[in-house]
Model the fold of this input.
Amino acid sequence: MKINYPAGFSGWAFLIIRLIIGGIFIYASIDKIIAPGEFAKIIHNYRLVHPNLINTMAIIFPWFELIAGIGLITGFRYKGANFIILCMLLIFIIALGINFVRGVNISCGCFSSSSSANSNLLMRIIEDALMILGCLAIMLKPRLTKRSSQPV
Amino acid sequence: MKQTLKDAILLLIVSLVLAFAVNSISSNGIPLEGTWYDNRHRVKLEVPPSYDPETDSLLSMQEAFTLWNDKKAVFLDTREPDEFAEGHIPGAINFPFEQWDDFWDKVEPFLSYDNTIVCYCGGLDCELSLFAAREFQAIGYPKSYIFFGGYDRWVEYDLPWESDYED
Done:
């Protein structure tokens, strides 16, 4: 089997970003897949979702996280996986931001399905913002690497 | 971009199939529609957002006041020390939920397993009292209650309070 190693520093940097974000998403999905009922409580706590959609979201969102995380790490359809993760991060950051502005102390359900797991919303928003930057970098990689390799 | 969207749709379809398949065979699977009340416009709640009526024990203002007045419970203020210092229910002990390990040694001598413990925090925006009471129940203090109205509601009712500051 031929292994294609990334070329140059930027290639490795993009690979590491993919591994980190993919790993975080896989880790974040496990607890929720095991206990979707607990995750549903957390979605309800956000006070943003119509009651009829809560359980369906609790069933499918963790699998989006898992499959997209695996795609990002293994490289299988990784651009699509990166796009899914970017969209999910945007949804998360908006939901967290709304509750931060509301001043409501909620469990974000980011890494655990326990609704009693307390979390610092501002810290989660910053983490999400950093991952969004990572996803944007992966998405714009061809343009970024092309520009940096142009002769000055 | 077109290819990216195609890949994303493929991955979403795979995820959906797996999600519904696993949910249908898992012992932890849930129905597609749950029995949730619509809380989208209720920012100020009368019960904690993650309140579970089967396991959490909420106290009303009257119940909390009676326990405090009769000195039949240990009141734990789960807010941060600076908030506690500004004002708290008289006799309450500061036990910031987010600094559990740092404060546990100070608080444990005041507790016994048959004590009634009342956890409170800032009021209707704060769930720290809920989390603390759950934790106490988990570690073997069965008479742990949540006074969700908290310090804010206590003051609103013009009940006694004390501050660590002179002014």
Residues 19-143 of chain A form one domain. Chain A has one domain: 19-143. Chain A has a mean pLDDT of 83. The CA atoms of residues 68 and 80 of chain A lie 8 Å apart.
